[in-house]
Structure formats: structure tokens, C-alpha cells
Design brief:
With 370 residues, the chain is an alpha/beta fold. The strands form three sheets. It has a seven-stranded mixed sheet, sandwiched between helices. A hairpin with a 2-residue loop joins strand 10 and strand 11 (293-298). It has two domains: 2-257, Aspartate Aminotransferase, domain 2 (3-Layer(aba) Sandwich), CATH 3.40.640.10; 260-369, Alpha-Beta Complex (Aspartate Aminotransferase, domain 1), CATH 3.90.1150.10. Helices cover 41% and strands 15% of the residues. It binds pyridoxal-5'-phosphate (PLP). Pyridoxal-5'-phosphate (PLP) binds next to helix 2. Residues 23-25, 28, 57-59, 129, 134, 163, 165-166, 200 line the site of pyridoxal-5'-phosphate.
Length: 370
């Protein structure tokens, strides 16, 4: 209860209800089921389809896989899955020459609107990873996409589910990544929050298994009934586990006492400085950072085959645990490093890149020439 109240207060009361589970995929299942069930309880049972973004990742249970567009996790189980509609992601890397990230977001919104115009009567919800699509290769996008998605979901009566399992809890610079919509207007007016917001991972500091779904009070009201079939039916053995909730409360205490958000802004500068030499390297493209997520793509012509595995092993020899996604090199450091450690990290990553890329001399010469 205390945890629910404190989380709800962080949304200014806009998301006033909390439903607990123990892992990320379960939180996604809850949001999907609750959305569908809400529409059924309010007389719109045909709304049972979902929309997700290209290359989005929302977990690996059967329901979550339906809204996950990552072939390696989904394909083996495809016969079991009711696939969602997949629409263009706003990934800024898709920009044509001269096109801005906001223009890419506008293109993605136009595609979303085309689908909603046709099928809104059958669609329950759109699910997105706000600002950064993790498994897609730390694909970052313009926050205007969030504003546009909110407006379209309102216009077509579709729920909006923000999956902040990876990007929540201060990772992107604000406690909830969603707070960066509306150009970071604070406090964000109640009607501009998503309808559901899923959290996990960072909420217990990563120590104990806990996940939760925040939602609007009006959604909960649709479930208040004596009739069992109208109630929200979902439970797990460890739902709302008291020890995990206590860890989450301790996490929130630390955010308040140590001013974690302000200190993370400073750490984000240290991270950018530490990565500066790497960012200037001619072997990398699409260098990007959002809060405490830094990523860049190693050019195909220098990465060679099996880049991710080779980089991972070479990095271990240099006391680094990093796990590239394809050719995307990224770091999401815990909120405990200082400027010197950020410089060390950048230096070790650059040295590892030298270890594993082909033709280091030429690229180093090109770097110096540039
Ligand atoms: C955005 C996102 N959604 C859902 C999940 C699934 O969480 P879990 O692995 O706890 O089921 C993850 C896990 O990495 C995630 O990053």
C-alpha cells in the first residue's frame, strides 16, 4: 500500500492504481489482459488486438511474445502466438539525409494513424518502450513520438501502455522516461500520462524480483463488481512479495535521500566525456546517449563476423562485462560510477574495439586525419 501510494505520487496521482507481479513479462501480461478486460467490461469486447513497434521487446511469455518483434525470441513459438500489429518504430537511425529525429517520429506516427483509422474498433492498446527500444539495439527516438502516440490513442480510443521495465527508475534522466514527453513539461498534466506503465528491474535496485503495473483509476473502476467474470483475474505466488516491496521502498528512499536524479544528470555528463574519444572514432556510427544509456553502431565493414561474441570475450580480458547487440555497442552502467571510472570505461572500450576490429591501422589513421 505504502509503495503504491509513493509510486502513484510520483505520477502526481495520474496513475493511481498499482498491480504487482514479480518479473517484467508478467507486468506486460497484466497490462495486456487488463486493457482487453476493461474494454469488455465497458461494452467493447471486439477490442482485443494489440499494436507494437518494429523490433520492440516486451518479454518472453506467450502473451508478451505477441507484442515482441524480435525474431530470435519469437519464431520458435510462433504457432502459439496471437501476433500483434507491428508498426514503424521511430528509431532515429532511419533518418534520410537531412531528416531530423522528430521527422522520423512524425513518419512513424503517420503509419500508426493509418492502422488506427482502419482497425481502432478491434484494437485494445498500443505498447511502446518510451525513448529507448533496448533489445532493438538501444534504438533511441525523439520524445515527440510519445506526445503524438498519446494524442492518437485518445483520438481513436486505444489504451497506451508504456513499458518502462528497462528505461524506468531514473535510467533516461527522469524517474519515468515518459516524463520527457511534452518537452519535459513538469508536472505533466494527468491526461498526458500513459494509461498503463510497467516497471521492474530498477524498482528493487535489481536485488529482488518485483514488477508492477501502474494504471489510471478510471480503468480500475471498470473492475469493481460482485460478478467474478468482471473482476480482474490474475495472480502469481509472489505477487506483491513483502520483502521485494520493502526493497522497492528502500530504492525510493535512496532516490530521495541521495538526490539520485540530479546526480545521474552529472553522471550522464561524465559518461559522455568518458566516451568522447570512442564517439569520435571513425569505426562507429549513430553515436547516441539518453541519460545513462550510451550506444553506438560499429560499421559493418570493420565489425566482421560474430562481432558481439568476439567483443564480449575480448572485453572480459580487459575486466569489462559488456554484451553488444549485433554490431551495437552499448553501456548502461549502475548509478555508482564517478568521472574517473567513466574515463576508464571509455578507454577500455576503445582498446577492446582495437582488439576485435579488422584493419585497425587504417581506421586509426582515418581517425587521426579526421
Ligand atoms: C522493455 C522490457 N520489457 C520487458 C522485459 C521482460 O522482463 P523480464 O525479463 O523480467 O520478464 C524486459 C527485460 O529485459 C525489457 O527490457
Amino acid at each position: 500500500m505504502e509503495l503504491a501510494e509513493r509510486l502513484s505520487a510520483l505520477t502526481g496521482g495520474a496513475l493511481g492504481n498499482v498491480f504487482y507481479a514479480s518479473d517484467g513479462a508478467s507486468a506486460v501480461e497484466i497490462a495486456l489482459k487488463m486493457s482487453f478486460h476493461y474494454w469488455r467490461n465497458t461494452g467493447l469486447p471486439a477490442k482485443r488486438e494489440f499494436v507494437c513497434l518494429r523490433h520492440g521487446y516486451h518479454g518472453e511469455t506467450v502473451g508478451a511474445l505477441a507484442v515482441t518483434d524480435v525474431e530470435v525470441f519469437r519464431d520458435a513459438y510462433d504457432p502459439l502466438i496471437r501476433r500483434a500489429h507491428v508498426v514503424m518504430a521511430p528509431d532515429a537511425r532511419q533518418a534520410a539525409p537531412g531528416e531530423s529525429a522528430a521527422e522520423v517520429a512524425a513518419r512513424a506516427l503517420a503509419e500508426l494513424e493509418t492502422l488506427l483509422r482502419e482497425r481502432a474498433g478491434q484494437i485494445a492498446a498500443l505498447i511502446v518502450e518510451p525513448l529507448v527500444q533496448g533489445a532493438a539495439g538501444m534504438a533511441m527516438y525523439d520524445p515527440s513520438y510519445l506526445d503524438g502516440a498519446r494524442a492518437l490513442c485518445d483520438r481513436y480510443r486505444i489504451h497506451l501502455i508504456a513499458d518502462e521495465i528497462a528505461v524506468g527508475c531514473g535510467r533516461t534522466g527522469t524517474f519515468f522516461a515518459w516524463e520527457q514527453s511534452r518537452a519535459g513539461e513538469a508536472p505533466l498534466p494527468a491526461h498526458l500520462w500513459p494509461d498503463f506503465l510497467c516497471l521492474s528491474k530498477g524498482i528493487s535496485g535489481g536485488y529482488l524480483p518485483l514488477s508492477l503495473v501502474l494504471s489510471r483509476p478510471e480503468i480500475q473502476r471498470a473492475f469493481v463488481a460482485d460478478e467474478l467474470a468482471r473482476s480482474f483475474l490474475h495472480s502469481h505466488s509472489y505477487t506483491g512479495n513483502p520483502l521485494a516491496c520493502r526493497a522497492a521502498l528502500a530504492t525510493l528512499d535512496l532516490f530521495a535521500q541521495d538526490n539520485v536524479l540530479a546526480r545521474n544528470r552529472e553522471r550522464a555528463h561524465w559518461l559522455a566525456d568518458g566516451m568522447a574519444a570512442l564517439a569520435a572514432d571513425a569505426r562507429l556510427r549513430h553515436v547516441r546517449q539518453r541519460g545513462l544509456i550510451w550506444a553506438a553502431d560499429v560499421r559493418d565493414d570493420v565489425a566482421g563476423a560474430d562481432f558481439a561474441a568476439r567483443f564480449h570475450h575480448a572485453a572480459r580480458a580487459r575486466e569489462l562485462l559488456v554484451r553488444p547487440i549485433g554490431n551495437t555497442l552499448y553501456v548502461m552502467p549502475p548509478y555508482v560510477f564517478d568521472a574517473a571510472q567513466a574515463r576508464w570505461l571509455g578507454g577500455q572500450l576503445l582498446a577492446t574495439l582495437d582488439d576485435v576490429t579488422t584493419d585497425v591501422t587504417t581506421t586509426r589513421e582515418a581517425r587521426h586525419a579526421a
